[in-house]
Known about the structure:
With about 250 residues, the chain is of the alpha/beta class.
Amino acid sequence: xxxxxxxxxxxxxxxxxxxxxxxxxxxxxxxxxxxxxxxxxxxxxxxxxxxxxxxxxxxxxxxxxxxxxxxxxxxxxxxxxxxxxxxxxxxxxxxxxxxxxxxxxxxxxxxxxxxxxxxxxxxxxxxxxxxxxxxxxxxxxxxxxxxxxxxxxxxxxxxxxxxxxxxxxxxxxxxxxxxxxxxxxxxxxxxxxxxxxxxxxxxxxxxxxxxxxxxxxxxxxxxxxxxxxxxxxxxxxxxxxxxxxx
Length: 246
């Protein structure tokens, strides 16, 4: 019953948010800036988490610019990161096909990447640098896919280059899930799990909370491979601290 009620609430909220975006689009004459899209996505995600009774807690300070790299647990990661502040996401192209969520991501200015096509990396890097120039943080999940939270996959270094060339700070972040009646792994969306049933399961859980821990310093990395390796190491350490703490 809880899942059904929240599903209806989520559907109505998403439709409301898309209507708000349509009104914004008309006011701007169809030319919505990156900043306006990011602000709309931030306000939208705050509304969704509030109406679904989800909580997001930040440890450390969410950066106001530069590249943010994080481990990846599910589609909920985008919702939780955007709740904390305006930002631009880099995401796999499959997200675009998700019911309503894909449209929400596209309207919010998400930069979509076609996996396995190295020829598009230059275009993606250009769009990332445009977001940097607009003063917006760019959130990247460099594992390339989501996991069950039991490990952190190697970080692909290619898209770190955009931040290094733009001389933007790179901030590592570690995200973790908690719920009153589910394990973190049950909330993760990975492997062959089907989107619809998983979403209904998540909507039925009590007390879903996300904790996002940010690296407090902004170390300078000499190249993208070292940046990918060192940020991943920090994320793994934070994840292990969380597991021991629980």
